[in-house]
UniProtKB/TrEMBL annotation:
Keywords: Membrane, Signal, Transmembrane, Transmembrane helix. Residues 1-21 form the signal peptide. This is DUF3592 domain-containing protein. The chain crosses the membrane at residues 117-136.
């Protein structure tokens, strides 16, 4: 019996894997291939310009990979806005509540991910396919 219990305990410790997830250094959003660190700085409604995009994807918490307009802190659909008198290369606004926006400062360029190419390739393939179909119908 002692051998069975000892074997069972050794088996559990030897073959169980631990699950690890990333701990993000700071809250961020990705827009137009750039990563912006979201600061605690609040913005007023008068500072907010036009809508420029929204969160479309979430990063993988195990690998840290992300693509497109992603965020590790905000849900899909969270809108991004221009900030009046500040170029988007320096900062953007993230809507965090009904009447609340926070400033997101440019941090660095987002890493390349192959899924980023889908945003370019799919419309091109659709356009070429339609052009070919139209061309074939015209020849008939």
């Amino acid at each position: 019996m002692k051998k069975t219990v000892s074997f069972f305990i050794i088996f559990i410790f030897a073959f169980t894997s631990s699950i690890q997830a990333l701990s993000w250094a700071f809250p961020f959003v990705v827009w137009d291939g750039n990563v912006y660190e979201v600061k605690q700085e609040k913005l007023g409604e008068k500072e907010i310009g036009e809508w420029i995009g929204e969160v479309k994807t979430r990063p993988n918490d195990m690998t840290g990979e992300y693509y497109g307009n992603a965020s590790n802190a905000y849900p899909k659909g969270t809108p991004y806005y221009k900030i009046n008198n500040i170029p988007t290369e320096k900062a953007i606004a993230v809507k965090v509540s009904e009447n609340g926006w926070q400033k997101a400062i440019y941090s660095h360029e987002a890493p390349f991910h192959w899924l980023d190419l889908l945003q370019i390739i799919i419309p091109i393939v659709i356009f070429i396919s339609i052009a070919i179909l139209i061309g074939l119908r015209i020849k008939k």
